[in-house]
């Protein structure tokens, strides 16, 4: 590790270091989120609400691929940063190579296997006769080429952990801008459909990979491909450390499927279309909180490896303040601008608009708590407290969410669906507070 990097992480004020990671992470993640939203706006305006709902139904498969990349990518990158903090560069390079090869092989095999059962999978995700053609077209492309996403996402994580958050940001911005331009051309010039939009997204990701390749020409680059053999112990450690990130993304898929199925039962296609709008907006907030986690993880992992608890404490206090303020601002925007937010996705029927507006206002309550939960999950994961990190992800997105989405609609109807996530996030935040108070986290000792 170079002296410049060591001086930067050891001597500069923690607040300054955190902002050097936070700002590029937030910009990159928010641009990617806006990319997803603009995709939704273009599909909704050009192909209609049913096509938009179809893409929304297929989106959990994309989420699963991202989950795989985070499972191995975050797990490997956390171990990489801990190795760098302990000054073990050779071990870090072995971990990097091992992780990239592992993620490419695993996701390629999963995608090809799922492709065989694509039609059954499309219906299982919540498609009906109206939405099936659009959902299946999008799904087919994602299953065949989803491994490209996983490699890009994992590589971006490692580049950020190798003290180059700016390049990771630039690559995400280039990917997003390319995707918007390509899909605009596909929809508005070539007049093609959902499958072509999915191909356009794949092409933009490949462009992003070329941008990331610039990192390997830096003098202070530590990400070098070395000869490896698959190491069972390393695979186990990588999977263990990265499991909370995987579970967080799987939880998004569980959330999406649960909401699609429940809303289809309660409100039909109009309910699913309304949720598709909300889900695009929700993706922006998820990216915002993921950006915060992406700033926390490399620093806490490094300081944990370097045995610097006081710097971990300072980093987390700043991160929690940022997460709290961001969540409050998002909540206020949702209450004031719900109609305007829904309106940008297209000219939908009044039924869809009414359902979506109510959904935004109720669902956005969750953001008061969600940022804190994301940041705390990243913290526990980075210091190898995997049980607590796993508890946060499993309870907020699967356990409590499923309990509430089964119970609340019985008493509150469709309002109960929208409130399931806010209730779950609040309860999880309370459990984190109680645990942190009991274990005296962030004491700097």
Descriptive tags:
antiporter activity, mainly alpha, Multidrug export protein MepA, transmembrane helix, MATE_fam, transmembrane
Brief digest:
The protein is mostly helical.
Q: Can you describe this structure?
A:
The protein is an all-alpha fold and 445 residues long. It has one domain (3-439). Helix content is 85%, strand content 0%. Helix 12 (367-382) packs antiparallel against helix 13 (386-412) and helix 13 (386-412) packs antiparallel against helix 14 (414-439). The longest helix is centred in the middle third of the chain and has 74 residues, at 232-305. The protein is globular. The protein starts with a helix and ends in a 6-residue tail after the last helix. The model is unreliable at 1-6 (pLDDT under 50). One of its GO terms (cellular component) is plasma membrane. Keywords: Antibiotic resistance, Cell membrane, Membrane, Transmembrane, Transmembrane helix, Transport. The chain crosses the membrane at residues 21-43, 49-74, 95-118, 138-155, 167-186, 192-217, 238-260, 280-303, 315-336, 356-376, 388-411, 417-436. One of its GO terms (biological process) is response to antibiotic. GO terms for molecular function: antiporter activity; xenobiotic transmembrane transporter activity.
> What does the overall shape look like?
globular
Order of helices and strands: HHHHHHHHHHHHHH
Number of domains: 1
Biggest sheet descriptor = none
Q: Mean pLDDT score, rounded?
A: 86
The number of helical runs is: 14
Radius of gyration: 21 Å
How many E-type strands?
A: 0
Strand content: under 5%
Instruction: Provide the low-confidence segments as ranges.
Output: 1-6
Helix content: over 70%
Q: Structural class per helix/strand content?
A: mainly alpha
Q: Distance between the terminal alpha carbons, to the nearest Å?
A: 26 Å
Subcellular location: Cell membrane
GO biological process, one term: response to antibiotic
InterPro entries: MATE_fam, MATE_MepA-like, MATE_MepA_subfamily, MdtK-like
Membrane topology: Multi-pass membrane protein
